[in-house]
Write a structure and sequence with these properties.
The protein is mainly alpha-helical. Helices cover 43% and strands 6% of the residues. It has six helices and four strands; from the N terminus they run E-E-H-H-H-H-H-H-E-E. The chain has a two-stranded antiparallel ribbon. A two-stranded antiparallel sheet has the order 3-4. Strand 3 and strand 4 (118-119) form a beta hairpin. The model has no long low-confidence stretch (mean pLDDT 76).
């Protein structure tokens, strides 16, 4: 199998992966921010949102690192300060109340924008 871009294939077929040992950071916060950003660099060029980026992380581990070194959040290039605050504080929503739940349970007819098929309440797609 050919290695991905940026990975060298040796004569014996093994892959050589570049590794950075140590960073001369001016503070622990700068080192943590660099480590997080460096691990996300390959994903930042795409159209991934905050939740997509977090899907590749151990969310609890990232929360712990950022809680232990709170100044790192301000130095991150890969996550903005609002995303870091959301990550540290947890979800920012209230559970749906009984009055709102009935609105969510309403059955509505939905039309497919591509084929025009109308899906009616209780109708299941055939396989």
């Amino acid at each position: 199998m050919d290695p991905p871009r940026g990975i060298a294939k040796l004569d014996d077929g093994q892959w050589a992966v570049p590794v950075i040992f140590g960073v001369d950071a001016e503070s622990k916060a700068a080192a943590v921010a660099f480590a997080i950003d460096h691990n996300m660099t390959n994903m930042l060029g795409g159209k991934l949102g905050f939740t997509d980026l977090l899907a590749v992380w151990d969310e609890e581990g990232l929360q712990k690192v950022l809680a232990d070194v709170p100044d790192a959040g301000d130095l991150l290039a890969s996550l903005d300060t609002e995303d870091v605050a959301s990550l540290l504080s947890g979800p920012d929503f209230d559970p749906v109340g009984a009055d709102d739940q009935s609105r969510l349970d309403e059955k509505k007819t939905v039309t497919c924008p591509e084929c025009g098929h109308r899906f009616l309440p209780g109708e299941h797609a055939s396989e």
